[in-house]
UniProtKB/TrEMBL annotation:
Family in the record: Belongs to the TMEM47 family.
Species name: Calidris pygmaea (Spoon-billed sandpiper)
Localization: Cell junction, Desmosome; Cell membrane; Cytoplasm
InterPro entries documented for this protein: P53_induced, PMP22/EMP/MP20/Claudin
GO cellular component: cytoplasm; desmosome; plasma membrane
Principal subcellular localization: other
UniProt-recorded name of the protein: p53 apoptosis effector related to PMP-22
Amino acid sequence: MVMCGLACWRCRWLLPLLLGLAIIMGIIALAGRGWLESESAPYVHQASLWESCTRGPYDFNWHCESLMDYGWGRAAAATYLVGFVILVICFALAVIAFSIEILRFNFVRGIGGLLFVVAAFQIIGLVIYPVKFAEEIPLMGDNMFSWAYGFGWASTVVVIGCAFFFCCLPNWEDEVLGNIKPTYYYSSPERAPYLN
């Protein structure tokens, strides 16, 4: 019988795998052009973290302006990008921490602390963007914050979950390392007549 409990070596890789998933979602958020889009036809507005593009109702060419000309645009991009860079560093540290035979549990808790810093930076960037965008960029028609913006939030939620797990993992050090012997519960037939 094969079981994958906490002591299973393969199961240790779940947290770095989740961090890798957060990195992939962060890349999609950074590169995606769907932070803000027109909700219905005519599709006249499209924005990313880096630029805002508009076009007329019957125009096929997008006219883009850089959001880096605005202080809030630079701040939103910088905070999200700094969080993403720290996330990549945490991923590398997690791979190193889980590669060695004896886990360094204080090291793992430090990764959890850094992940909370990542979440703070990403949340700041994800809050600055829609607030200041709606205030300073003229919007035409009905608009919505779209799929790439959602990937940014999804990455942040995964990072917060991983941060809690990395911080709590040292509390179960013996279970993770397999140092606890299994407990078998046995009762004799004389003491448990209902088993007959």
